[in-house]
Design a protein that fits this description.
The complex is a heterotrimer of chains A (about 600), B (about 230) and C (about 500). Chain A is an alpha/beta fold. Chain A has helices spanning about 20-30, 50, 60-65, 125-130, 150-165, 200-210, 260, 265, 320-330, 425-430, 475-495, 565-580; strands at about 5-10, 10-15, 35-40, 80, 90, 170-175, 175, 220, 230, 235, 275, 280-285, 295-300, 305-315, 345-350, 350-360, 375-380, 395-400, 435-445, 450-460, 465-470, 500-505, 520-525, 545-550. In chain A, helix 1 packs parallel to helix 12 (about 565-580) and helix 5 (about 150-165) packs across helix 12 (about 565-580). Chain C has about 500 residues and is mainly alpha-helical. Chain C is built from 16 helices and nine strands. In chain C, a hairpin with a 3-residue loop joins strand 3 (about 115) and strand 4 (about 120). Chain C is globular and about 70 Å long. The N and C termini of chain C lie far apart (about 80 Å). The chains are: A alpha/beta (about 600), B mainly alpha (about 230), C mainly alpha (about 500). At the A-C interface, helix 1, helix 2, helix 5, strand 9 and strand 16 of A face helix 13 and strand 9 of C. Strand 11 (about 275) of chain A pairs antiparallel with strand 2 (about 20) of chain B, so a sheet runs across the interface.
Chain lengths: ~600, ~230, ~500
């Protein structure tokens, strides 16, 4: 439905809804094809010199604690609850996750931790059932295989890594295991574009501890530049200076891969591309048949509504916002957790974190010298890299020391038993700040029948539209897995020669505070057929073939890795299908 | 008329442009920047005298001056909190503050109608009422040990305050105190980088790579704030 | 007496008018409009030659406003007495050059006389264009007569009395203007003569790079030793090794002209426009000719400067370490083709520090070109550093790593600050109709982003060498549920 008040604008080939990583990738790819492309971004234009220059970007209070670069709940939030029997209440203040807004999206304030999923992650159901028996997957666990394989996605992972100049060391080059890299990763067609990040003291101690236990630590693949880089588009990035203000901050010296630092300089110069900021899409419009998207309706900063007709609509917003827009637009059957039918909102998943604090008496670690993806990792306990027999769970996660920069409001560690305030607290903080680190575990979350997204019946956004409602909790699988990972992390901490360690297990239900991770996935998943999924393997809507949906909303379940690499690879895969197949013959790319 | 193929008229700028258009090149204006600097000139702008007295007394117990050096008072934490409560944070400008106000479970986070500014006002008044009832004096007038005891009970949730959640208020006050002790001095707290000097954090330094490989050695540079350090001026 | 007063007024004005530059108006790079050569009036060859000459003359930036029609004029060129506004040079009969003959056009370029308004102001660089041959002028005319006509009549004469009296220009012309086409030097090579013709004529390089005397005339004996104009100082182009081009290789000069970037510097501001609209679109032959000519300019004399004060150097070093070294490196080496090195930087060491003081006060954006599309930006420091601090950090950089230049005074910075009126507030995002940028980005093979990792204009994906070597507390939302143990799980980032 198009509101009568909306001004109808001239039609355009492609409209992109949202302008973060996937919007920039799609814009670049589809303008290369000669299409006229319009990107609509709800937030403001954001560039390095004005919004996060080195003259003031290092402001922990402003950017992290006061959330300057993130979504404003006052404008739009979602409601949350752990199970369907509870009444969802709004997330009034950002906490557990921090969705972005504005040009570049969360690609501005991500860490740059850039991963590929394991080949077995793409076959989560069939692989686990085959290895551990069908009974290893509980009935409530609704995991699905991806409709494509790691091998199909490999060239597209590669494209993103070369776009960004990812710093790393290959562990598997065309099937040959390489020393110094991740021996568990899927085969790569070539080495990383830039050498790994140099490693500081704490990651070095972690690697030594891990090696003592027989593990194979390797450098975290990094979207922070280990050296200056010119990408295939001719766009340049500078070397990372380890300022320690990366995660949740914009980069002031062009050394973190972001849409701004890898694509926009070229894309903005194209005459067939236009970006409109402060333009928030309210609905995707469909024709009477509900089989064809006719464009979108959006509202600008002055509150004026516009109808933007387009031949092709690509949703490029954050995973949660994609799902909400589909629900608000009435596209696809909403998921029903009771019957298990419907597809929009299905298989929402997250990730599960725990940490082990590591204290030394005799080592100065200078933890403030950091970068978002600076650290060493072991992958022995991720995915199906280890035998889960008898463990009571599937999946896993990576264990690492990632020294992203110990900003002191957030990070001022004290050993167990220290009071929370007063002189004793102050003494412990002064004693331990330079001499401690922590080992996070970064665990997968499976999908479940009762973890899903739908529209809230009560709460509304500033435009009066229903908020998204999230119903989510960790399963028994996740608690067992996370506890297992925490114990492995503690063993490594001990092998590092720590004076004291503290194990911080993930206990209880998912809590909207404190911050955990902005790796929300699912809700508009890809799959083999329209009964089980919203999208086909090309991220194309089964119901509305001229609608494509990007983002981690496509993941059938979450893996034990950061999602950006896979999100970008799926976007390149979809763009390639649009360029080589869809434009020749617009219509469904996979028969239903 | 020469062979001019087309003839057009210059469009009037600013006509019915939908949204803000960015195309052609990255917008940039000389001098454009969006720094944020709180004014620390003058006295309190938000706190009333009794509120200031409470905050000064409480933060002095949370992060005291001791043999390691100055504490929250020396770092100007009360001034920092005052400026924060007077601004976007205090007024919950970014937060979702629409009703209805449901009864939250343990995992649904902040569900209070009060903005932080209102919360401080209500809680301080309630705390002083309880203190006066128990000890005959407002919190600020108690001796240090009594203040510590009071704060410990507040933290434990064992004190019922009139109309506000005392335990939640304690959490907010402690968080804001830590913020004011460790934030960049441009926000009015961490005066003279007292918090950073205590722990060895070098502040807003963009270049630190030169010391990445200097394992187990103290960082050689003094802390610097967004507005600089003393050595910048002669 | 009256005559003297008129002369004084003319000189006062012209000193300013001559150096008027359209500063502070960053422009979107646009393709030149395609000509229509279907008629018989001009040959396609002549029109094509004219189009290229328009590039050599860098005509487009001054005669086009941001977002406006190409060559329709209207760009204001600020002077302290009010803006000079460029003319519509499209073939519109009423408001452009539609009624002009080729003789009219030649008179404008050769003599500075307009068919319509009489004497032109020398902000239009006829004192240089006079050197252009009649054949070249006719070709430019042919191109400009075949581009789309645009009706646009910008209000050009916005100057107050007496400066709006164009007749005053006759006096100035009599004093300083030498009409005459370029006369080749038979003792020099054809390449050198081509370079001299371009640099002295269409290129009008001396308009910025040659100093002016107090009356606004070019100081011929100091040709190309650098010139001051409001807000900028155009650097020395002579063979001087510290402030000129003496230490640049030919290859470095060529790269700069082609891409706006090389290992020594990056083009911003006015020179950025020159690179974008002119030099980056010149033939290699012409660029080499320009280089050959520039190489022949005798080095300007070395300036004698006194040692900077110890206190200024100490404060400057502290600021430099904390604010500049992340990009420009502590040893002043910068990052190749991203962040210009300051060691040996000619711009930094000019006798007049106006440009570098400007860069620190209000920042600068490097001009994107097709081969170097990233617009790197030096951030603004006006909101952050005092005049004294900016002066000290510049003094430090001008006297470190082998650099040698006079100390910068706080008063110099203060004066520039008043002139530039920097504002700390963020500028509103410009609004306007869709602009059409970038010559041929789409059409070029190799810019297709599918060519991942393949060579593109000599820039393969190969990395460039690097020359340089919780226990945590919860966010404020955690109010109803304060943890007795501070939160321990939030240190992981959004990946």
């Amino acid at each position: 439905m198009v509101p009568l008040s909306a001004t109808r604008l001239p039609s355009i080939d492609v409209v992109l809804v949202g302008f973060g990583w996937t919007g920039a990738i799609m814009g670049q790819e589809l303008t290369d094809e000669g299409l006229s492309v319009l990107a609509l971004e709800r937030g403001p234009w954001r560039s390095t010199p004005e919004r996060f220059p080195p003259t003031f970007a290092q402001d922990e209070l402003r950017f992290y604690y006061r959330h300057e670069l993130f979504q404003r709940p006052a404008h739009e939030t979602l409601t949350i609850r752990n199970k369907p029997s509870e009444t969802a209440l709004p997330m009034r203040v950002l906490g557990s996750f921090l969705p972005g807004t504005g040009v570049g999206g969360a690609g501005v304030h991500w860490n740059g931790q850039t991963w590929r999923f394991l080949p077995s992650d793409f076959k989560a159901r069939s692989h686990n059932a085959e290895r551990y028996g069908a009974a290893a997957i509980p009935p409530a666990m609704t995991i699905q295989d991806y409709p494509l394989t790691y091998d199909e996605l490999e060239p597209h992972y590669d494209r993103f890594e070369y776009l960004c100049g990812i710093a790393g060391k290959a562990g598997n080059l065309n099937g040959t295991i390489q020393p110094g890299g991740n021996p568990f990763e899927g085969p790569r067609s070539r080495e990383y574009p830039t050498p790994p990040m140099p490693q500081g003291y704490a990651p070095t101690l972690f690697a030594q501890g891990a090696e003592r236990l027989g593990y194979k630590p390797f450098p975290q693949p990094s979207g922070n530049m280990s050296q200056a880089y010119t990408n295939p588009l001719g766009v340049q990035l500078g070397p990372c200076t380890f300022c320690g203000f990366c995660e949740k901050f914009g980069c002031g010296n062009y050394s973190k891969a972001s849409p701004q630092t890898t694509i926009l300089p070229v894309l903005l110069r194209k005459p067939n591309f236009e970006l409109r900021t402060e333009s928030e899409v309210l609905t995707i419009n469909v024709d009477r048949s509900a089989k064809r998207a006719t464009g979108v309706t959006y509202v600008d900063a002055e509150g004026r509504e516009f109808e933007q007709p387009a031949e092709l609509v690509v949703l490029c917003a954050y995973a949660l916002h994609n799902v909400r827009l589909l629900l608000l637009s009435g596209i696809g059957a909403p998921y029903d957790p009771v019957s298990g039918t419907g597809v929009v909102g299905k298989n929402y998943a997250y990730q599960v974190f725990s940490t082990v604090d590591v204290f030394f008496d005799d080592k100065i670690l200078n933890p403030f010298i950091g970068a978002g993806a600076h650290g060493m990792v072991v992958d022995e306990f991720n995915g199906d890299n280890f035998d889960h027999s008898g463990l009571g769970f599937i999946g896993g996660g990576y264990i690492s020391v990632l020294q992203t920069g110990a900003r002191p409001i957030q990070t001022h560690p004290t050993p167990e038993g220290t009071p929370n305030w007063g002189s004793a607290w102050k003494r412990a903080v002064a004693q331990n700040y330079l001499r401690s680190t922590f080992i996070p575990t970064h665990g997968a979350v499976m999908s479940y029948r009762s973890n899903y997204l739908d529209l809230d019946p009560t709460y509304r956004d500033v435009y009066g539209r229903p908020l998204l409602r999230m119903t989510f909790d960790f399963g028994e699988n996740e608690h067992r897995m996370s506890d297992f990972l925490t114990d492995r992390a503690a063993e490594i901490a001990t092998a590092m020669g720590a004076t004291r360690i503290t194990r911080n297990y993930r206990k209880g239900s998912w809590d909207v505070v404190p911050y955990q991770t902005t790796h929300n996935t699912g809700g508009a998943i890809i799959g083999d057929n329209p009964q089980d999924s919203m999208l086909n393997k090309y991220s194309q809507s089964w119901d509305v073939p001229n609608l494509f949906v990007m983002g981690a909303s496509a993941f059938p379940q979450n893996a034990g890795y950061n999602p950006t690499g896979t999100v970008a690879a799926l976007a390149y895969y979809a763009a390639d299908a649009i360029r080589t197949q869809y434009l020749n013959s617009p219509g469904p790319l996979v028969p239903a | 008329m020469p062979e001019g193929p087309t003839h057009s008229t210059v469009p009037t700028p600013g006509t019915a442009v939908p949204g803000r258009v960015v195309a052609g090149s990255e917008p940039w204006q000389p001098g454009a920047a969006a720094p944020e600097i709180a004014s620390s000139a003058g006295g309190y702008v938000f706190f009333k005298p009794a509120e200031a007295a409470f905050v000064e007394a409480a933060v002095a117990r949370l992060i005291p001056a001791d043999e390691l050096g100055g504490g929250a008072i020396e770092a100007d934490v009360p001034l920092f909190i005052d400026r924060q409560l007077n601004g976007d944070f205090g007024n919950a400008t970014r937060w979702y503050m629409q009703g209805p106000w449901g009864e939250p479970t343990k995992t649904q986070g902040y569900q209070t109608r009060l903005t932080p500014a209102q919360f401080y006002r209500a809680a301080i008044q309630a705390i002083d009422a309880v203190s006066t009832r128990m000890h005959g004096q407002a919190f600020a007038a108690l001796n240090g040990d009594r203040q510590d005891d009071f704060l410990r009970v507040l933290e434990s949730g064992a004190i019922a305050l009139d109309g506000v959640d005392g335990q939640a208020f304690f959490g907010l006050l402690l968080q804001n105190t830590i913020e004011g002790f460790f934030c960049d001095p441009v926000h009015g707290g961490n005066k003279d980088m007292i918090g950073w000097k205590l722990i060895g954090f070098p502040g807003a330094r963009y270049e630190q790579r030169f010391f990445l490989k200097a394992f187990n050695q103290p960082f050689p540079l003094p802390p610097v704030g967004i507005a600089g350090r003393r050595e910048w001026s002669r | 007496m009256r005559k003297g007063a008129v002369l004084a007024a003319a000189v006062l004005f012209l000193t300013v008018a001559l150096v008027g530059r359209a500063v502070g108006q960053p422009k979107t790079i646009r393709a030149l409009p395609p000509p229509n050569v279907s008629g018989a009036r001009f040959s396609p060859q002549q029109v094509a030659a004219g189009r290229y000459l328009v590039i050599l003359g860098d005509c487009m930036p001054c005669h086009t406003v941001t977002g406006g029609a190409a060559f329709a004029g209207g760009r204001p060129i600020p002077t302290p007495f009010g803006p000079l506004v460029s003319a519509n040079i499209t073939p519109d009969r009423e408001t452009g050059l539609g009624g002009w003959s080729s003789d009219d056009f030649y008179r404008a370029l050769h003599e500075g006389k307009s068919r319509k308004v009489g004497n032109l102001y020398p902000a239009f660089p006829y004192i240089h264009y006079t050197k252009v041959s009649r054949a070249d002028v006719d070709a430019i005319y042919a191109y400009l007569q075949t581009i789309p006509a645009v009706t646009s009549d910008p209000k050009r004469d916005q100057l107050p009395f007496p400066y709006r009296i164009r007749q005053l220009m006759a006096v100035w012309n009599w004093l300083f203007f030498e009409p005459g086409a370029y006369d080749p030097d038979p003792n020099r090579s054809a390449e050198w003569n081509r370079g001299a013709y371009l640099v002295q004529g269409l290129g009008h390089c001396g308009d910025c790079h040659t100093p002016r005397n107090v009356l606004g005339g070019a100081e011929r004996r100091k040709r190309f030793r650098g010139g001051a104009f409001p807000g900028w100082f155009a650097p020395d182009l002579t063979d001087n090794r510290s402030v000129g081009l003496g230490s640049w290789s030919d290859a470095e000069l060529l790269e700069f002209f082609r891409t706006g970037r090389n290992v020594r510097t990056a083009a911003t501001g006015e020179m950025g426009e020159v690179v974008a609209y002119s030099t980056s679109q010149m033939t290699d032959g012409d660029l080499r000719a320009i280089i050959t000519y520039l190489r022949s300019l005798p080095a300007s004399p070395e300036a004698t400067v006194s040692l900077p004060g110890r206190e200024a150097m100490a404060a400057g070093e502290a600021i430099y370490r904390d604010q500049c070294s992340a990009c420009h490196r502590m040893d002043g080496s910068g990052v190749r083709r991203l962040f210009p090195p300051l060691a040996g930087n000619a711009n930094l060491q000019q006798a007049n520090p106006r440009t570098v003081a400007r860069l620190v006060l209000v920042g600068a954006q490097t001009m994107p070109t097709d081969p170097r599309p990233t617009a790197f930006t030096m951030p603004a420091y006006a909101w952050k550093l005092s005049d004294r601090q900016i002066a000290d950090v510049l003094t430090y950089a001008r006297n470190s790593w082998g650099n040698r230049a006079a100390a910068v005074s706080a008063e110099d910075v203060a004066k520039l600050r008043r002139q530039l009126k920097p504002r700390a507030a963020i500028a509103p995002v410009p609004r306007g109709s869709m602009l059409h940028p970038a010559p041929g980005t789409l059409a070029k093979p190799g810019t297709d982003s599918r060519d991942n990792g393949t060579a593109h204009a000599g820039r393969a994906a190969a990395p460039e060498a690097d020359r340089n070597p919780r226990n945590t507390t919860g966010p404020p939302g955690n109010m109803d549920l304060p943890k007795h143990k501070p939160h321990r799980h939030e240190a992981q980032g959004p990946g």
